[in-house]
Amino acid sequence: MSHEQLLEIQRIDVETDQLKHRRLSLPQRAELESARRDRQTQQVTIDEVAVLRVEAATRQRRLEDEAETVSARADQDQARLYNGEVTAMKDLQALQTEISHLRERQESIEDDALVSMEEAERLSGQVSAMEEACSGLDERIDRLVGEIAGSEDDIDAKLAALTEQRATCVSEVDADLLEDYAQLRPGFGSATVVHFDGRNCSGCPSTMPAVEADRLKHVPSGTLDHCNECGRIVVT
Ligand SMILES: [Zn+2]
């Protein structure tokens, strides 16, 4: 029966559209997008902190080098104090004062280096903690990508089965009728082929005029005709 096949084609088309819509609007897609945005934002912060950590570590090394240079100079002066090179009491005192200043400076620079080292360590811990937090987010992203792929495979299998079913139905429906249905479907969607219950067309928004109802009533049962009111294909 041609009208049953046409109704079946309509059912398949409706289900196909629903599946395609479901494929596009899987809830995990929005979740994935949001997770990826979060991941990107966190990476920006991680990169910023990592830059600060490198700066602190560089500062620490520079200060350590500077402290070493000052220490070497103090050691040199210390040696001069005892090697007999300087003998005058006044010069010896001046040398001792300089050594004392150099040692103070060395200590101060070493303190600064320590502060920088601690800062670098703190920032390094911060980077590790943030990367750790991101690993959870990365796992979530991977899980969502997997779930989406799984759902897509499920839907694609159903779509393939529907395509096959549709092809079988199409082979049993008159080509002109199919063409008619194809032309009307963009406007009427899931209600392109409708029923006539003896009084009204189920596609018409209002009560059918008696003349049109009477006309359709006299169309042989199982025949396909058009409703003159709404233009849909009516199964009587
Ligand atoms: Zn109608």
Which features characterize this protein?
2 domains, 3 strands, three-stranded mixed beta sheet, binds zinc ion, 236 residues, Helix Hairpins, mainly alpha
What does this protein look like?
- The protein has a three-stranded mixed sheet with strand order 1-3-2, covered by helices on one side.
- The chain is built from five helices and three strands; from the N terminus they run ααααβαββ.
- 78% of the residues lie in helices and 4% in strands.
- It has helices spanning 2-24, 27-82, 89-171, 175-188, 210-217; strands at 193-195, 224-226, 233-235.
- The chain has two domains: 20-172, Helix Hairpins (Orthogonal Bundle), CATH 1.10.287; 178-235, no CATH class.
- The model has no long low-confidence stretch (mean pLDDT 94).
- The chain is mostly helical and 236 residues long.
- 11% of the residues are buried.
- Bound molecules: zinc ion (ZN).
- Residues 201, 203-204, 227, 229-230, 232 line the site of zinc ion.
- Zinc ion binds at residues 201, 203-204, 227, 229-230, 232.
